[in-house]
Write a structure and sequence with these properties.
mainly alpha; disordered C terminus; globular
Length: 148
């Protein structure tokens, strides 16, 4: 299988299962490669370890929900698989530079981005606490970014 297709399949799988929970063993069976091989190929192709990518996608969707729903931060955290508010807040701050409450108050721009061929998702504002790439795992193209 071509790496491009494999990474696209992983990204599509993750995007479709953020609230249900991403089962890496199920993903491995679905694409027909060992989990170790998947992790290696994904990290080489994207520059981001698969677990970090999944966390960043969960945070991106949670950020969208914070801005566009009236649900509490705890309800949103629980929906995206976080065990408690503290874990969610730490992960959210690491990815966005803001606490969930501050994010909701400041209302930074959240755009639609292209994640892979035919797969679009929520992107976060650029944040670089440690010089890392943007937290959404992809850099939006001006032609592909739209306010959501």
């Amino acid at each position: 299988m071509d790496r491009f297709v494999l990474v696209g399949a992983v990204i599509a799988y993750v995007e479709n299962r953020l609230t249900a929970g991403v089962d890496l063993d199920e993903l491995s069976r679905a694409v027909g490669f060992s989990l170790a091989h998947l992790r290696q190929i994904f990290a080489e192709a994207t520059g981001v370890p698969m677990r970090r990518y999944i966390l960043q996608r969960r945070i991106a969707h949670a950020a969208f929900d914070l801005l566009y729903t009236d649900r509490t931060a705890l309800d949103i955290a629980t929906a995206y698989g976080f065990q408690n508010a503290d874990t969610f807040t730490r992960a959210f701050r690491r990815c966005t530079g803001l606490s969930p409450q501050a994010f909701r108050v400041q209302r930074p721009r959240v755009a639609r981005i292209k994640l892979a061929a035919g797969v679009y998702g929520v992107g976060l504002p650029k944040h670089s606490a440690h010089g890392d790439s943007p937290p959404n795992g992809s850099v939006p193209n001006d032609s592909e970014s739209n306010d959501t």
